[in-house]
Hints:
The complex is a heterodimer of chains A (300) and B (323). With 300 residues, chain A is an all-alpha fold.
Amino acid sequence: MSKTKIEDPEDRGIVSVADWTKPRIRHTMRASHAVLLVVLAVSGLGPLLWLGKAALTPTQDTLRTPLAIFPNGIEWQNVVTAWSTIHLDVQFANTLWVAAGSWAVQIIVATTAGYALSILRPRYAGVLNALVLGTLFVPSVVLLVPLYLTVLDVPFVGISLINTFWAVWLPAGASAFNVLLVKRFFDNLPREVFEAARTDGASSFRLFWSIVLPMSKPIVGVVSVFAIIAAWKDFLWPSLVLIDPLVQPLSVRLPALQQSIELGVYLAALAISSIIPILLFLVFQRMFLRGAGLGGAVKG
Amino acid sequence: MTALDERPSVVDPPQPAAATSQRRRPSTPRTWLRNGGLSNFLFLVPMLLIFGMFSWYPIVQSFVMSFQKTNLVTAPSFVGLDNFVKVLQDPLFLTAAQNTVWFAMLALLFGYPIPLIAAVLMSEVRRAKGLFSALAYLPVVVPPVVAVLLWKFFYDASPTGVFNSILAIVGIGPQPWIQSITAAMPSLVLEATWAGAGGTIIIYLAALTGVAPELYDAAEVDGASIWQKIWHITLPQLRGILLITLILQVIGTAQVFLEPFLFTAGGPANSTITVLLLIYRYAFQNSLGGDYGAATALSLMLAIFLAVLSVVYFRLTKSWSQN
Lengths: 300, 323
């Protein structure tokens, strides 16, 4: 008993080591954990496994016996039709483009702004910082209509960004959350390194490119995951500014497909749209979960 | 928000190395240039352009436009409070407001206790903790549009619908789900809870690891049971994060759009039309051309309502969260 305690004195929860040795408590805890695991598996994994199954099931089988597993064999044709005949390949490529461009804009804005506000710190940095922070308190609904009209007729430039990817890429960069996340990370980098580089005659650009950026891989990773996932998830905004199906990403195109194509193909389309985010999650699980916990910390 | 800017000033010198030697001198364009003022500014250009154009300018515009008549054909003209009066007199406004409150209340009822119970249980898991978190978080990574469209198929009201087939196994007859005026909103909330609970669970799990083990040790010395430890230590320690997730959830659900838009388009009989759906209809689904004035007026009212609600909420809970 005391041995376990020495092994991980910090890693104790509500139930003490002594409690764990009592059979009644141990069995209740084990049972409730087993129930929780089953509930999580059924609710978290169940719908996705069903979607995977339905994507490969003939339409009539899914309609008649939705819970049966491949009663009449597998229908690979659903996936092939969705990809090449319905041209989901176009939407898939568009989604990648939207995500890549939004990612690039967000990284450029967040790292340069974070660098300037945290490390270079000109006199007016405080004012800018407050202006950026202020936008966090404005709910996105307020922006919807005026942002739409801005993109419809960009001030000073006088062009419309409708049906161009720029309409999604550029507004994605205006994320106060990213700027603050990166700024806070830079605030905690050791000042001595920058001062040493300055003494050696490094310019602001050199300092940014050769020292600050290589040191900021962890935060760039977190911002990247957020940016790509957000771009993949977004619906309302891209549905307003990307009206032409040829430039629409998956999320915008899917609701329109609902009425016009066969159910089996449609479900295959839904499955294709979820594969990349789910794979990304499985590969970068720790980064996702850390990011989710971080979201709570920053919002607090 | 305070966590972000509250840094001990001892850690960071107030000025970076480049500016220290010149700090006291008056700033002329030449010294500004020599001290790297230009390169400092260059690094801020991307942020100034993007935030200026796509954040600050639209925020200012939303105030201006709510007092204007804007139809993209003639030049905008100021109409005073007409837009606000128009919205408040719209019979759909009251329906949308009530539905949004109903959605928010149901979302709290479904979505607030479940993640907390799950997180407290999960924090006690000794083996394969990662598996629990991964399973809980999985629905969050599914694109929301896919989740809604998939659930829309699950909610098929025919006896061979997915959920109705499952209910048939336990002997319950087919339910109308999103086709019924009374069941539509709870069905929407059920899907929204499924899609969002994982994120909250992870936030609570992170907070639970921050509870000092010594507190539990001390309670055990006093002979506290497991329930007493949860009630007197765990929950009070989580109070701050619980208060914040509550108001954030209310702010989030007040802006619900995707579920009513894709599941029911506000139906049946306007039973799921929400404030955001009404804003969308004013601006983008108007047969007479977009009524951008009414849409921004309603957005602004919603934002002001949420701001007032947050301030009142934090006032009311202030003493409680500091005890």
